[in-house]
Amino acid sequence: MQLTAPYHESLPQQSADSEKNLKKAARASFIGNFVEWFDYGAYGYLAAVIASVFFPTGDRTTALMSAYAVFAISFLIRPLGGIFWGYIGDKYGRRPALSWSILIMSAATFLIALLPGYASIGIAAPVMLLVLRMFQGFSASGEYAGASAFLAEYAPPEKRGFYTSIVPASTAAGLLLGSLMAAGMYEWLSAEAIADWGWRLPFLLAAPLGLVGRYIRLKLEETPQFQKSAQAAKPESVPISRLFRHHRRALLLAFLVACLNAVAFYLILSYMPTYLSEEMGVSKTQSFFAASISLLSYIGFIFLMGTLSDKYGRKAMLITASVLFIVATVPLFSLFGWGGFGMILLIQVIFGAILSVNDGTLPAYLSEIFPTDVRYTGFAFSFNCANALLGGTAPLVATWLISSSGSKLSPAWYLMAVALMALIAVCAGKDRSRETLS
Fold it and tell me: Is residue 376 part of a domain?
């Protein structure tokens, strides 16, 4: 009986400590992910300028496709990065993986700002750009998955969807800052100034932002879930080998479901300003403003969708998102040429809302489909394979489809086909939102 009082007295303290750690994890995940995707998104928003700086400018379409090819190639390293960061995260802890990934991303992004252009050093310019983009891709491959797994393991089961939705919200916030900076530059700087030095400004911000994010992450504690798993793990075991031996079906389903995020995210939130300006004749300023509105609607809806996934389950939400993309994508793209700029803004808001249904649910779904000992690796590898094959190539494929088919609706049909594939995968999987993480 002497143990009873101290035990009960410790419960409020344990609860307070858990709540404090959860809030610290939420802040660190948001800030770190925000920094990483601001760095990563800056390239996508300034692709047209980067094309003119780093590639021969004889053919505008070819130069733009070259810039997007570099964007796409940098994604090819992401599955390898997913294996590497998954190994670090599952073997040694979520915290070291997250703190090192943000440092590498920020350094690579900062160095892009210092690169000379094609006019100065010729072919060496795009080669160096590609190398630094590969480092960016390697770093980003551990970010989304690590932050999601970290929050999923800290959050109470009934709020797991809400807390993991912080990750896509922070991603969109980083892209929003990049979009606003791009819009501001096109509004207040001349085209010559942007091509000469203005495009470097977002990349220069990477250094201070990255140092702040790393400092915050170094102050985190490991999740209790990981600590228990690490005690039971065999020292010689390798997460990627366990993943392929025991979780192949989960890995395939996770990949197929993540493909919708990969294509929709980069088409709607990254490629769209270029699509509007290059294909639809919308001004640069209006294109980026419309993209910013889409991002704002996405961020506004994302926490609601995470909460709804806690209430109705991940499967129901992901099915809803897939069906909405299948039904609405082509009609919405068809309306871009009607009704002026107000119609463009409305379409962007609708796209942002539909995407949030999928992305507000996806981090929790991918965290729940894998057990703790391979969660980081499983999430990172499946998510990054989807992004390497379909996400990073989405702007390039969209540009090529329009060029080869002559149809400005071709990216919409592409997104619709991927949504159908994701729908089949979601229906084949199991909803684990009511289960305790294993």
Answer: yes
Residue type, 237: S
**pLDDT score of 6 more than 50:** no
Report residue 84 as tokens: 């590497």
Helices (H), 46-123: 47-54, 60-73, 78-91, 94-113, 118-121
Q: Which long-range contacts (CB under 8 A, 24 or more apart) does 337-343 make?
A: 337/280, 341/282, 341/286, 341/290
Residue 355 sits in which domain range?
Answer: 16-218+246-428
Q: How far apart are CA 260 and CA 72, in angstroms?
A: 17
Q: What is the CATH number of the domain that holds 378?
A: 1.20.1250.20
Task: Tell me how many domains the chain contains.
Answer: 1
The torsion defined by the Cα of 312, 313, 316 and 322, in degrees rounded to 10, comes to: 120
pLDDT tens for residues 126-182? 889 888 988 888 888 888 898 899 899 888 889 999 999 999 999 888 888 887 888
Q: Cα(172)–Cα(359) distance, rounded to whole angstroms?
A: 11
State the Rg of the chain over Cα: 22
Instruction: Identify residue 415 by its one-letter amino acid code.
Output: L
Q: Can you give the pTM of this predicted structure?
A: 0.83
Cα distance between residue 268 and residue 42, in whole Å: 15
Q: Residue 364 in contact with residue 254, Cβ under 8 Å?
A: no
CA 109 from chain centre, in angstroms, equals 16
